[in-house]
Design goal:
The chain has 163 residues and is an alpha+beta fold. It has one domain: OB fold (Dihydrolipoamide Acetyltransferase, E2P) (Beta Barrel), CATH 2.40.50. It contains 2 helices and 5 strands; from the N terminus they run H-E-E-H-E-E-E. The chain has a 5-stranded mixed beta barrel with strand order 1-2-3-5-4. A hairpin with a 5-residue loop joins strand 1 and strand 2. The chain is globular and about 60 Å long. About 16% of the residues have low confidence.
């Protein structure tokens, strides 16, 4: 008796879409785990507080950010310190006079004219985190966050000096 096997079915468009979603989720999850599990991030920071090598190393979903400059320093007053779902510590800085060039229209629309700052989990153990109302000097990668309205921010912040 001869056994005939049915040909494999061609995946439907919905099945292909579901596979793509699963692949994307696994990629994001594995990237997130890798980011949090990467050993000591200090070796990737120079003496001036600027990133050596890949500027967005350790950033969750890095492709949403457009690098404007690999290293900037901004100073001002801290507002709204909180922890984001991705593990970043975030806050905004009301900049000292003369630093308005670090902001764009979206900073005025969505951030009350302040520069947004994010400290990633990779750097949390070596950076002093500020409290609301403290004056700071923040060094890090200056980016535009294309996924959240396009505002400018320092992300990752790699050095924070608290006055």
């Amino acid at each position: 008796m001869k056994r005939i096997l049915a040909p494999l079915a061609t995946p439907t468009r919905a099945a292909r879409a579901a596979l793509l979603v699963v692949a994307l989720v696994l990629g994001v999850v594995s990237n997130r785990v890798y980011d949090w599990a990467t050993p000591d991030g200090a070796a990737r920071i120079g003496a001036d507080g600027c990133v050596l090598g890949e500027p967005l190393e350790g950033v969750y979903v890095a492709p949403r950010l457009r690098v404007l400059a690999r290293c900037v320093t901004a100073s001002g007053l801290v507002h709204g310190v909180s922890q984001a779902e991705d593990g970043d510590v975030t806050f905004d800085v009301a900049l000292d006079a003369g630093q308005e060039h670090l902001l764009n229209a979206a900073n005025y629309m969505f951030k009350s004219g302040r520069l947004h700052i994010e400290v990633i989990p990779l750097d949390r153990d070596r950076i002093s985190l500020p409290r609301n109302g403290e004056r700071v000097r923040v060094t890090g990668v200056w980016v535009a966050d294309n996924a959240h309205g396009g505002h400018n921010e320092i992300h990752p912040a790699t050095l924070i000096e608290i006055d």
